[in-house]
Amino acid sequence: MKKNSSIYVAGHKGLVGSAIVRKLKLQGYKDIITRTHKELDLVDKKKTEKLFVKEKPEYVFLAAAKVGGIYANNAYPAEFIYQNLMIQTNVIDLSCKYGVKKLLFLASSCVYPKICKQPIKEEYLLTGPIESTNEAFAAAKLAGIKMCQAYNRQYGTNSISVIAANIYGINDHFDENAHVLSSLIKKFHEAKIKDRKAVTIWGSGRPRRDFLYVDDLADACLFLMKNYNSSEIINAGTSVETSIKELAGLIRQITGFKGKTIYDTTRPDGNPRRFLDSSRIKALGWRPNIGLKKGLSLTYDWYKELK
Question: Phi then psi for 263, rounded to 5 degrees?
Answer without folding.
Answer: -105, 120
